[in-house]
Design a protein that fits this description.
The chain is an alpha/beta fold. It is 35% helix and 21% strand. It has one domain (2-274): Rossmann fold (3-Layer(aba) Sandwich). The protein has helices spanning 2-17, 19-27, 121-135, 153-164, 180-195, 202-206, 228-239, 261-274, and strands at residues 29-30, 42-47, 53-59, 71-77, 81-82, 100-104, 141-151, 168-174, 214-219, 244-249.
Length: 279
């Protein structure tokens, strides 16, 4: 009788302790929304290879001469919660510096189509690839000057795409985690490491950037993704000769990076040197 009771309880709990369920519930916090498009932004939609439609906002570079030609462009890959409406603060300054920006929502986020099942990291990588594919079709985008700017979870996904796609010429990562197992272990010890599988780890992705430059930005008081992850990523990049710039933000937390004027100035300088601009 006791054995039967134990087996029944275990069977009931199995769906909640599987890696897939834990990853979907712990790492991804989508919010469906129909946020109003800000003035000057362009509403865009584009397909994924598995037949979904994703939503985004395209922010055109400002102050360019009519004959200046296509502009250097940044693909923003946002964090694990909400929608683009809550993440645009991190990149809204870039059009004024001469860069186009594309923000987009993963499946199940914002106004993008719902996922067909529990969210998985490979699907979000696919969504990031779809956003890059769309960006490269636009006449106002200089396809030889495209960078990826990832924040938190988006830094991990952006690096995974950049590692595979030579069209990405430079990468900025804010507050990303070096590995899925590592960040899970920070929060839940050995249990986190056991239940969260490896794959698309940023520490592996940075090592595959080759000669393409990387800017790492992390705050020393980040309580969501601990600062140590930035050091791991820097060491991985340096070990294989990736040109890496490193900005340690004393006292910075996970969110404050996005509006820090010193950080923004460093980002603009990095992009001007690596992608160029007419400004």
């Amino acid at each position: 009788m006791l054995l039967s009771l134990f087996l029944g309880i275990f069977a009931a709990l199995v769906p909640f302790i599987t890696p897939g369920f834990l990853e979907a519930s712990v790492f991804y916090h989508p919010r469906a929304s129909q946020a109003a498009t800000p003035a000057g932004y362009e509403d865009v939609r584009f397909p994924t290879t598995d037949g979904l439609s994703l939503h985004g906002w395209f922010l055109p570079a400002e102050g360019r001469d009519a004959d200046a030609g296509p502009a250097p462009t940044v693909l923003h890959v946002h964090g694990n919660s909400g929608s683009i409406a809550g993440h645009r603060f991190a990149v809204e300054f870039l059009p004024g510096e001469g860069f186009n920006v594309l923000l987009f929502d993963y499946r199940s986020f914002g106004s993008s189509d719902e996922a067909r099942g529990l969210l998985r990291r490979e699907w979000l990588v696919e969504d990031t690839n779809a956003a890059l594919d769309y960006l490269l079709t636009r006449d106002d985008v200089d396809t030889d000057r495209v960078g990826v700017f990832g924040y938190s979870l988006g830094a991990v996904l952006g690096l995974a795409v950049a590692a595979e796609r030579e069209e990405v010429r430079a990468v900025i990562e804010y507050a990303g985690f070096a590995s899925w197992e590592g960040v899970a272990g920070d929060k839940a010890g050995f249990l986190g490491r056991w239940l969260i599988a490896p794959g698309y780890d940023a520490v592996d992705s940075v090592a595959r950037l080759g000669e393409r430059p990387l800017l790492i930005v992390h705050g020393t008081r980040d309580g969501i993704v601990w600062y140590r992850h930035a050091e791991v990523l820097r060491e991985a990049a340096q070990a294989v000769g990736v040109p890496v710039e490193f900005l340690r933000v004393e006292g910075g937390n996970h969110i404050s990076l996005g509006s820090d004027p010193v950080v923004r100035a460093a980002v603009v300088e990095f992009l001007r040197q690596r992608l160029g601009t007419t400004h």
